[in-house]
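Re: that chain you flagged

S.,

Sorry for the slow reply, it's been a week of failed gels. I finally had a moment to sit down with the sequence you sent. For the record, here it is as I used it:
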Amino acid sequence: MANRSYLYSADSLPNESEIPQRIRCISEHNWDVPLAHKLMAGRGTTIVPSMIWNPPIGIAADYASGAALLLDLLRAVGEGLEDDAEFAACVAGTTAHLEKQRAEYFILETGEIVSMTDDDPAASVRRLASDDIPDAVARAEAAIAGRDDAWLTSLRSDWQSHFASFYGEALYFSFPN
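Prediction finished late last night. Pasting the C-alpha cells below so you have them in one place:
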C-alpha cells in the first residue's frame, strides 16, 4: 500500500462533531503532497479536524481561488510544453474534473504522509499549512507573473511528479453521499 495525500471538495468544513454532508473526491497522490495539492489548498488555508483520522490534521482552503491558482500555473508551465500531448491531456482532465467536482472548499488529508516520520503529525500539518503551502503559492505566483523562469523550467522537466496525480470520483478513502 502506498501512503497518499488525498484531496476532496465540500460545501462545508468538518468540525469536531461532524464531517460535511457531501464530500466529492478530487485527487490522490502516492508518497508525497504534490505541488498541485499544495496550490489547491493555498488560498484561505486553515487547519480543520481530519475527516479520516483522529488528530486535527485536515487542511481546508477556498476552492475557487485554489483551483484558479493551479490552472494559472498549468498554463504557464504549458507555455514550454506545447508539443507534449501527455501534458495537454493531463491539463484537460484536471480542468474537467475540477469543474465537475466544484464546491466551496478543498479539504486536504495528509495523515498517511505526515505519519511516515517520527514527527508529531499535528505539528507536521501545522508546518505544511504555515510554511510549505504558502511557500509553494508564493513561488507559483512569481512564476505566473514571469519572475521565476528557472522554476518553471524545472517544473516542465518533471511535470508528472507535480501535476499527474490520480483524479477520480472514487479515491482509496471515499465517502458515501
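What I noticed first: The first strand starts at residue 4 and ends at 10.

Talk soon,
D.
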